[in-house]
Design goal:
Layout: E1 4-9, E2 13-19, E3 29-32, E4 36-41, E5 44-49, E6 54-63, E7 67-74, H1 102-132, H2 136-148, H3 158-161
Antiparallel strand pairs: 1-2, 2-7, 3-4, 4-5, 6-7
């Protein structure tokens, strides 16, 4: 008897499709174990040593006029590299799935953002203090250097800044682009 099988998976299950015409008439049987699946029909037998353990109680099978579909509930939510253990090196159990406490992580992110905002505010206060206590010449240098450089340079030296246009100096690892 010419019979083929194929499989696909989701995070929670593996589905094996055995292409078998008139499966009900062929009096097929399926036996599902934790690490093995056995299907028999007339002169056909399919025995699979599964790649990972499954939960037999949550697994099932059904037939249509063209196939038998065996749905296996995965024991752990991981992608399988293959269906069977054939020629696959035995690997120790997969690492446990760590559940994240998303509320805790969100609070940590909020604290980090608040800290950044406070640091930025402190820096702005420092620049305001420097600007308000500076001479008119230093204030001109700060305004010219900041505006001509697109906010990448802040100089207090009017003698240097007054001689030419202040070039953009982007941070290391970045590049400046003019937009049309």
């Amino acid at each position: 008897m010419s019979v083929r099988h194929d499989w696909y998976q989701s995070d929670s299950k593996v589905v094996i499709t055995v292409l078998l015409k008139n499966a009900v008439e062929k009096n097929y049987s399926v036996h599902i174990e934790r690490e093995k699946v056995l299907m028999k029909a007339d002169n056909y037998s399919l025995e699979l040593n599964l790649y990972r353990p499954i939960v037999p109680e949550k697994s099932s099978h059904k037939s249509t006029s063209t196939k038998v579909e065996i749905s296996l509930a995965k024991e752990s939510f991981e992608r399988w590299d293959c269906l069977e253990m054939k020629n696959v090196p035995i690997v120790t159990a997969p690492p446990p799935i760590h559940k994240q406490n998303w509320d805790k992580i969100a609070k940590e992110v909020e604290k980090s953002e608040e800290s950044e905002a406070q640091s930025e505010e402190a820096l702005n206060q420092l620049f305001k203090k420097i600007y308000s206590n500076a001479s008119p010449e230093v204030q001109k240098a700060m305004n010219k250097s900041f505006s001509e450089s697109g906010g990448t340079v802040l100089s207090t030296n009017w003698d240097e800044v007054s001689k030419a246009k202040v070039d953009v100096k982007p941070p290391d690892g970045t590049e400046f682009r003019k937009w049309d």
